[in-house]
């Protein structure tokens, strides 16, 4: 990067600006290099704007990682107008052949309340670029060298650009999917149908919006059908076709008379849909229409929340119509199916009837980011927040989270949150590992969300993941060798990968999550592993049991609880401990209270516990005895697999009992 120094380009034309604006430009020129003067332009009938372009000098490049020219728009109105943001877009499009910074722009307004007004205007738009507001009064008066810099710091570092939850509707923060978007757009242009599937939060809807933007740029039509909307999936298949026509008219802004909904009977729906879609096609300049069906599960057999899609043949009739008309009408429309679950095109028969789109629609899984894509996203977002990531961190993010952009962004959000307010901040590997550990501990629900698709639709594959996480490779490979379909979805979703006939997790965070969640479900344990599990689980349960029993006996018996506990100890120990307080009786550092003592206290005073737990008293008593026996015998005998399985049943019951009182 060549050195840039404050100043104003010799060919800058000052005559386009007022005296106050000239003073502002000179003030900016003492901090930045003013590169270009812009011709005034009008937006609408009454709004006129002026602008300049300026380039950051070394200290701004260092503080904010800026190296491109940014846009400065002058708004010479005493009341700030929202259309000033449109003026920024106008200038960007006019100079898009230059290296213009998209993420940041300046507005200089005559409205002294511009900061508050701009804040209110942008608070609902999380995808807005960073706008740095100044007023004419501020910049036309003498200012120190830190005034402009501090305003930049406030607006750059106040926003967390990683913390996006909703689908992205703009290109500004859309990363890593350009090739996929172009591929899907080209399929439509070639009059081919397509489908796209991915885990939750992999950016499916953001990709849809990107496809629509790409088609709009080349003057092509697309219509978004949200299958999750009850207005759609609550309709029968024939009325759902009418709903599509309604959405096509509305989204393409077509003012044309089409068939009334009541005429979309089961017998006539296909005929009416054909006539209506042809009318719209001709009205819109004979341009093919891409129908995008998002959240396709909502109209899919067996899984739809609406009975007539889940249990009847609505899916069959609906897709018979669309597939038939697609072939008949040629290039009038194509369709794109989007969802989490490809079963809608993988299942051959539906209640004994042929699936109209079985193996008829080529589909893609959404791929994870590779290291360059992760670097592009994290570096560009981080640099305007004052975060400088070491190169090694990009690789670690990609490896640990399988290139899953949602998880990557939220780990980076924690990094931003925990970073010093004094920016820029170096994010090295140690800092990353600390934030990663916090994310893995606090945000397990995000990882759980990823595999909810498998738990809901593919229970066998979900079980296989558990085997792989617990390093039970023989069982995993047995399933994989018997039926390749078991691994197809896991490979497609990018959860696992295969190298030299060996399978491994691609999302390391998911592996660790499953290991933790299924810690006590591992099969084929060694004797040492069995003994370790028995000891670990029983000791953890015993600590919690002490507190539960202490609290429940006190709640039910008041002061009498002290004597009840002493009685359970027998004569010798009761005399030894009678001088202790009630709480001290449950302190293992003071009193030798054994696991069997705890069992007897629970069983002897079952009425204090039974309302919170539904198991039979005698059955529970037997389970506690078994746990105590296995703990005492663990180091003396070989524990068979059958014994270990029974211990786990008993221990899970006890842990469930404990959760009743602690959750």
Number of individual domains: 5
* Count of distinct strands: 18
The backbone outline, from C-alpha atoms, is globular
Biggest sheet layout: 7 strands, mixed
> What would you report as the Rg, rounded to the nearest angstrom?
33 Å
Low-confidence stretches: none
Mean pLDDT: 91
CATH superfamily of the largest domain: P-loop containing nucleotide triphosphate hydrolases
- Global structural class: alpha/beta
Q: Could you name the CATH topology of the largest domain?
A: Rossmann fold
How would you classify the quaternary structure?
Answer: single chain
Q: What is the helix fraction of residues, given as a range?
A: 40-55%
Characterize the structure shown.
It is a single chain. The chain is of the alpha/beta class and 663 residues long. It folds into 5 domains: 151 residues; 188 residues, Rossmann fold (3-Layer(aba) Sandwich), CATH 3.40.50.300; 72 residues; 71 residues; 136 residues, no CATH class. The strands form 5 sheets. Strands 1, 2, 3, 4, 5, 6 and 7 form a 7-stranded mixed β-sheet that branches. Helix 10 packs across helix 13 and helix 20 runs antiparallel to helix 21. The longest helix is centred in the C-terminal third of the chain and has 31 residues. The chain is globular and about 105 Å long. The model has no long low-confidence stretch (mean pLDDT 91).
């Amino acid at each position: 990067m060549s050195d840039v120094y404050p100043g104003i380009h010799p060919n800058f034309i000052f005559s386009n600006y007022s005296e106050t604006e000239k003073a502002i430009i000179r003030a900016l020129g003492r901090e930045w290099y003013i590169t270009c003067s812009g011709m005034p332009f009008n937006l609408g009938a009454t709004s006129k704007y002026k602008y300049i372009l300026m380039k950051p000098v070394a200290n701004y490049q260092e503080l904010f990682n800026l190296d491109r020219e940014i846009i400065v728009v002058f708004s010479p109105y005493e009341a700030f107008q929202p259309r000033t943001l449109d003026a920024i877009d106008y200038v960007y499009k006019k100079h898009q052949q230059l290296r213009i910074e998209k993420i940041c722009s300046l507005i200089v307004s005559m409205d002294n309340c511009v900061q508050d007004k701009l804040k209110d205007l942008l608070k609902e738009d999380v995808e807005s670029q960073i706008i740095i507001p100044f007023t004419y009064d501020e910049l036309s008066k003498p200012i120190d060298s830190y005034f402009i810099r501090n305003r930049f710091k406030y607006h750059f570092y106040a926003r967390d650009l990683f913390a996006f939850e909703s689908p992205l509707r703009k290109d500004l923060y859309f990363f890593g999917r350009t090739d996929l978007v172009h591929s899907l757009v080209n399929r439509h242009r070639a009059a081919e149908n397509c489908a796209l599937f991915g885990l939750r939060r992999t950016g499916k809807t953001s990709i849809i919006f990107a496809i629509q933007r790409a088609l709009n740029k080349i003057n092509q039509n697309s219509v978004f059908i949200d299958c999750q909307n009850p207005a759609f999936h609550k309709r029968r298949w024939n009325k759902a076709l009418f709903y599509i026509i309604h959405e096509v008219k509305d989204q393409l802004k077509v003012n044309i008379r089409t068939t009334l909904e009541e005429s979309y009977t089961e017998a006539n729906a296909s005929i009416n849909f054909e006539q209506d879609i042809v009318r719209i096609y001709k009205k819109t300049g004979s341009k093919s229409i891409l129908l995008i069906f998002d959240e396709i599960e909502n109209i899919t057999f067996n899984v739809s929340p609406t009975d007539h899609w889940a249990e009847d043949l609505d899916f069959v009739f609906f897709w018979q119509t669309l597939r038939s008309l697609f072939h008949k009408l040629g290039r009038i429309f194509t369709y794109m199916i989007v969802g989490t679950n490809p079963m809608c095109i993988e299942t051959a028969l539906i209640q004994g009837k042929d699936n109209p789109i079985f193996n008829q629609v080529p589909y893609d899984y959404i791929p994870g980011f590779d290291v360059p894509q992760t670097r592009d996203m994290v570096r560009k977002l981080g640099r305007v927040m004052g975060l400088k990531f070491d190169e090694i961190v990009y690789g670690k993010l990609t490896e640990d989270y399988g290139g899953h952009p949602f998880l990557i962004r939220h780990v980076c959000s924690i990094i931003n949150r925990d970073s010093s307010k004094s920016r820029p901040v170096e994010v090295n590997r140690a800092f990353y590992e600390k934030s990663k550990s916090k994310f893995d501990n606090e945000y397990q629900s995000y990882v759980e969300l990823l595999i909810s698709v498998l738990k809901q639709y593919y229970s066998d594959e979900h079980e296989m993941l558990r085997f792989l996480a617990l390093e039970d490779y023989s069982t995993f490979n047995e399933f994989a060798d018997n039926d390749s379909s078991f691994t197809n979805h896991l490979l497609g979703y990018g959860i696992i990968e295969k190298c030299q006939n060996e399978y491994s997790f691609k999302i390391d965070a998911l592996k660790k999550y499953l290991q933790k969640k299924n810690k006590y479900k591992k099969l084929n344990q060694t004797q040492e592993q069995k003994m370790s599990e028995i000891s670990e689980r029983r000791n953890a349960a015993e600590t919690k049991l002490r507190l539960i029993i202490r609290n429940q006996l006190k709640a039910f018996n008041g002061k009498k609880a002290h004597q009840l506990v002493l009685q359970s100890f027998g004569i010798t120990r009761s005399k030894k401990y009678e001088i202790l307080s009630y709480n001290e009786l449950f302190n293992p550092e003071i009193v030798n209270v054994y696991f069997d003592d705890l069992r007897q206290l629970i069983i002897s005073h079952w009425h204090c516990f039974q309302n919170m737990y539904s198991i039979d008293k005698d059955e529970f008593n037997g389970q506690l005895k078994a746990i105590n026996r296995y703990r005492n015998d663990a180091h003396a005998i070989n524990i068979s697999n059958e014994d270990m399985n029974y211990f786990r049943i008993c221990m899970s019951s006890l842990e469930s009992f404990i959760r009743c009182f602690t959750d």
